[in-house]
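Posting this for the archive.
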Amino acid sequence: MTRPRLRARAGRVALSSEIPLAVMRRPAAGAAADVPDHFLCPISLDMMRDPVTAPTGITYDRDSVEGWLERGGATCPVTSRPLRLEELVPNHATRRMIQEWCVANRALGVERVPTPRVPVSAADACEHFAAVSAAAKRGDGPACRQMVARARALGKESERNRRCFASAGAARALASAFSHLAAFYQAEARTLEDILAALVVFFPLDEESRRCIASPASLDAVVSILSHGEHVARVSAAVVVREIASSCDNQCLQAMSKANGLYEALVKLVAKPISPQATKAALVTAYYLVTNTEHAAARLVDLGMVGLLVELLADADKGTTEKALAVLDSVLITDKGRDKAYAHALAVPALVKKTMHVSDMATEFAVSALWRLCKNSPEDGGRCKAEALQVGAFQKLLLLLQLGCEGITKERASELLKLLNGSRDSAECIETADFKGLKRPFT
């Protein structure tokens, strides 16, 4: 189904976004619904779905005018008089007229605009989460779960509701509730799962929220959900853990690195994927743990992460490939990590293939990982260089430098070329053909 062409009048205020409001079924050939001028939002030039009136007397579609105010507008777009969000009043009369017009034009394929739900007010949001906190503190899991589910549903219903709840401290209240109930995981598992699912809706997390979830008892509950929860709950737990890790809050990262079973849960999400979102979240978390805490790389290597990452690169999408390469490059800092990569027949071919094949970020990590393998171990590194030459690494690196790269990638690509050139057979010394078409041959 496609939208009908709504005829906008001249002289309206046209801003950025377009809001789809009416839907076509199968209009007769050449037929078009001529929308009355006063049904069109002065901002979007589309028929209004949820008309609200400003004190200036101008009626707008709610999403359009709230978006205008959010982007920094402090005045009525038509009259330029001061305007605040709380001054907008639902225009039920205009909304009913629009609905009646839609019904009258059904033959032209216009569907009736549904009656909008009443948005959450700031006072209602504060009251709701105060009740959530109170229920959690007295250990009333069922009541807490019911209110959390309602908050999540309302937050997903509209961006306005989500922002309203977030401003009322939703993340902080949910993290606190999780912390209070985490000690009763066996009895409150479903409630805790629902809290994590709701928490995802109200990102980002502030420092207090992150540290509530990163407390030892809370982390134990998160890891249990990550490992044994329902499918949706495991995805939510993975996303929450990623959010905390990517904040680079050292206190949280240290606590996570000591959490029982977290590394195993992350590796499990890579070895047995439950969704692309969860896999990516696990990789991001692993990356921040490896780059910010001691012993994380060794733990992941011992759990078989190197082999899993190499195999994941075979058919991963762009985002997953970039994250997998980032983690692989990070764990190759360790001797154990490089030994595992040397032992894997596809490690070097995979890194060479992903160079200049996915994105600049992927190329950066692939070159860095290949550099670590070729540089660090004389014996295994020599075998690695021979493999890299066989699968065309030399030519790719030449091209990469000729096309242009910067910083550490340029340095490592140049050093790699020197290492690979030193390993070339005397009969395969650099010939003119190697530089065919290159304006700046490597020296």
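DSSP finds 22 helices and three strands in the chain. The first strand starts at residue 51 and ends at 53.
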